[in-house]
Specification:
flat; single chain; about 110 residues
């Protein structure tokens, strides 16, 4: 119908020379993720990079809105090391910076 519109491209650094790119849904969330097969300088001469497409990591209950239930989920894990969300800053502990990240992103997911 002539109404197809593409969004602006987004560049991701893989710190290597990607030769192949494959898209698939690695984490089974319904969104394509990317894998690059890279040529590198070094002992192995190559590497693989996996780029997981996380649309809205602060939406802990997957309802497309960062809200009260997400805040409660974060508070329940306060001080723990969940090995992923809600440890948004990856420092090994759910704490103040994770709370601030959730609050800054409060509302509908993009």
């Amino acid at each position: 119908t002539g109404d197809l519109v593409f969004e602006e491209p987004v560049a991701f650094s893989v710190d290597a020379d990607p030769n192949f790119v494959v898209n698939t849904d690695f984490n089974d969330d319904g969104v394509f993720d990317l894998v690059t097969v890279n040529a590198d300088e070094g002992e192995t001469g190559g590497s693989v990079t996996v780029l997981i497409n996380v649309q809205c990591p602060w939406d802990l209950d997957d309802n497309e809105v960062v809200g009260a239930s997400d805040l409660l989920s974060l508070l329940v894990q306060w001080g723990s090391d969940p090995g992923g969300p809600p440890d948004f800053d990856g420092d090994g502990t759910v704490g103040a910076s994770d709370l601030l990240a959730l609050l800054v992103n409060w509302g509908p997911c993009p």
